[in-house]
Amino acid sequence: MTKLQVAIDLLTTEDAIALATKVAPYIDIIELGTPLIKSEGVSAITAMKEAFPDKMVFADFKTADAGGLEAEMAFKAGADYITILGSVDDATVIGAVEAAKKYDRAVVVDTIGVKDRVQRAQEVTKLGVAFVELHAGLDEQAKEGYSIQVLIDEAAKAGVPVSIAGGVNATSIKAVKESGAVVAVAGGAIYGAEDPAAAAKALKEALTA
User: Fold this and answer.
1) Terminus-to-terminus CA distance in the chain, angstroms?
2) d(CA 133, CA 34)
3) Mean per-residue pLDDT for 181-196?
4) d(CA 59, CA 96)
5) What is the band of 195 on the pLDDT scale with cuts at 50, 70, 90?
6) 20 to 30 A Cα–Cα from 5, which one of 58, 116, 175, 184?
7) Contact assessment for residue 158 and residue 135, using Cβ atoms and an 8 Å cutoff
């Protein structure tokens, strides 16, 4: 079954925990967005894991170098997952995967900015990552003509475990599930909603229907 991940791109731990509290009943994975971690540091990870010990906590580091070191930082702080950028050298991914084995945690490769997401997803899966995030960033989504369908098609083609991030909402969630994605990542569709709990509930129901 496709899991639901909330991407929290707020800038304070307090606001992030307040949002997570509202949506937790419907969410499998709580993602601390890169801006939040840059703003608050790894203490935000610890605070979130302490508040929600039964949830998987996803630290969106988007690591570009020193994979083992940064993965260790995230895992020691309480993260279950860390993201490594797909555009980096394989050695960075391998270092993070080694740290993940040591802590019994997991690495996710984020394909933001990668030209051939499907090929890179297949390559890094062989290095031992848990899944690959097919990701169109906020700037890419803002471009004229952007459609999440690109990611949905790539997920179906990849043949490896992937998540989809980049416009997951009530309209696209069914197609995301049908693509075979193991995780659907919703950000603005939840935290930008008038009622985040209701938005998360609707997405979860669409995934479990």
Assistant:
1) 10
2) 14
3) 97
4) 13
5) very high
6) 116
7) no
- Contact 165/134 with Cβ under 8 angstroms? yes
Interval 126-175: pLDDT, tens: 999 999 999 999 999 999 999 999 999 999 999 999 999 999 999 999 99
Mean pLDDT throughout 21-39? 98
* Cα 134 from Cα 131, distance rounded (Å): 10
- Which residues in 26-153 belong to E strands, given as ranges? 29-32, 56-63, 81-85, 106-110, 131-135
Torsion of CA 34, 195, 5, 27, to 10 degrees: 130
Average pLDDT over residues 109-130: 98
CB-based contacts of 181, cutoff 8 Å, min separation 6: 2, 134, 155, 162, 163, 164
Residue 6, classed as helix, strand or coil, is: strand
Based on DSSP, count helices (H) and strands (E) in the chain, helices before strands. Answer: 11, 8
Residues belonging to the chain: 209
Residue 124: its H or E element: helix 117-125
Contact 31, 47 (CB under 8 A): no
